[in-house]
Amino acid sequence: MEKVEGGISEVERMTFNDLVEQIGGKYVFVHDTCEELSDEMVKQITKTPILSI
Fold it and tell me: What pLDDT band is residue 46 in, cutting at 50, 70 and 90?
């Protein structure tokens, strides 16, 4: 998925949340920037859930 100007819309964010919930996921992490994350950055971000479903 490519990032468009202005980031993702609320509809796209809700779609991700619904998808994760349907497949049995508990947490959703949306990285809404063009910057590529290293493994260490992902570990740091995911230490605390941002959105719990």
Answer: confident
- What token pair was written down for 17? 């949340």
Say if residues 46 and 25 touch (Cβ distance below 8 Å): no
Which DSSP letter does residue 33 get? S
Closest CA to 32 of 20, 19, 43, 1: 1
The token pair at 38 is 């290293």
Q: Are residues 53 and 21 in contact, defined by beta-carbon separation less than 8 angstroms?
A: yes
**Gap between the Cα atoms of 30 and 9, Å rounded:** 12
